[in-house]
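note to self — DONT lose this again. spent like an hour looking for the file last time. sequence + predicted structure for the chain T wanted, 558 res
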Amino acid sequence: MHDLVIRGAMVADGVGNPLIRADVAVKDEHIAEVGDVTESARETVDADGLVLAPGIVDVHTHYDAQLTWDSQATPSPSLGVTTVVMGNCGFSIAPCPPDRREQMARNLAEVEGMPVAALEAGIDWSFESFPEYLALLRRKGCYLNAGVFVGHSAVRTTVLGAEASDRAATGDEIATMRGIVTEAVEAGAIGFATSTSINHYGDGGVPMPSRLAEDDEMRALVGVLGELGRGIFQLTVGPSMTNERLEGLAAQTGRPVFMTAALHNETFPDRAIGMLEGAAAAQSRGNAVWAQVSCQPLSMDFSMRTAFPLQSLDAWEPLHTASDDEFLAIIGSEDFRNRFRDELEKPQSGKIFYGDWRRVEVAMATTPAHRALEGETIETIAGREGRDPVDVMFDLAVDERLGTTFNAALLNADEAAVEGLLRHDAGLISLSDAGAHLCYLCDAGYGLHLLGHWVRDKGLFDLEDGIRRITSMPAQLYGIPDRGEIAPGKFADLLLFDPATVGRGAIRRVDDLPGGESRLVRDASGVHGVWVNGTGIYDGDGYREVPPPGHVLDRFAR
């Protein structure tokens, strides 16, 4: 007897073959049959012609902290995701000795837009080493399959402590870090991740620790992957990390390199496509370099106190550690505003805000006098009032004592340009950032957005190819065995959906983080069921209360 049979589905195998009408049987976590299944099962689901696909393999998430208090990793399962990779950009929480926990949490809260009170209340710190962290996840259980990068900033914080964001490492410190990375990869890390992005700041406006790494440190730590002959290298790219340097690391180690992220920027329109062309050229020379691309616009909600889009600007420097009163005085001053304007007039590649006031709007006002401005762009308000946009935004923030919420569509807003990035052979569609930037955005539904917007509505890909790009393709490139495909012997990670209605829902705010803190989430549209290793975890209406069926992944095919 089978454990589960899903009958009468239009089955997408995940590798791009045409849909077939078939039954799919599951036994002992694996797919047992695809076809006309006659054997009975403990549970039967009538698919009634809905599409049955492999679950989405989301290789760019940040659930490292959340999984220690939320085994469901919400909202990703309801959005069709069955496998996640976390620790991206080097922002893992393991290793972490007890005397580094506050520093680690506060840096994470800043760079990932998460309430520090939620992290302090929620993280289960009953681990120190990376192997102990994996063991903790296994004890707690996961609804999803989870792979984990060992993160550069976590490793650097563990070794250098308070000086991790201040200076280069010594030779002895690099040797200690190499030992930690080696231990992590041997214990089951999917690879090593880091960031050189100038947008990544920690607590009090200090650079995230990985940004202080010099070339000898970077080469030594990535070199561990080459010496062990396993693991992925993921890097969030800053201006100093050129295509040539990345290809050099791929050639040195023989390991795959994944750049984050090729996002279209109207101020520097050649940057994203240049990353992809550089990756394609590296591949032509036998070096596995890929660029992650996103099928969604990068849009963020922010207040002045949590202004991630603005924090990398040099003019913002005095605001990182300012009290509320000091903050108000600074942004109200003409000197600050002039420096802010001057910087926008001389844009620097790698930053994410360039003063496009057409794409910044008032999302929520806190005072009745300004409620009529909600939904209007700063450009519209400035034009109507005959004022400078910088003054409009900062005057409003001062009037509402920093309570105003703005929304900025920062990157990937030009769909014609994004189409070219999504089609590119050297790109991997990913970049949900699920589990991070909780105060600003929720892009966890990127896979459903691809299927609804780009496949159904825009016709950019046919359905079979769209599914392939978010299932078997990331699984194969990241060496995650037996995932992302519907075939006998593969793990039964499954997504049942209606192609006529599938998509991501509207963003909304909920107060469900530890300590009652809030975050932004999205609901799914058109999802009728999600299974992980053959166990149903989401039925289209809500989560099923089941023993967590996910695997903590620790063996990879590359």
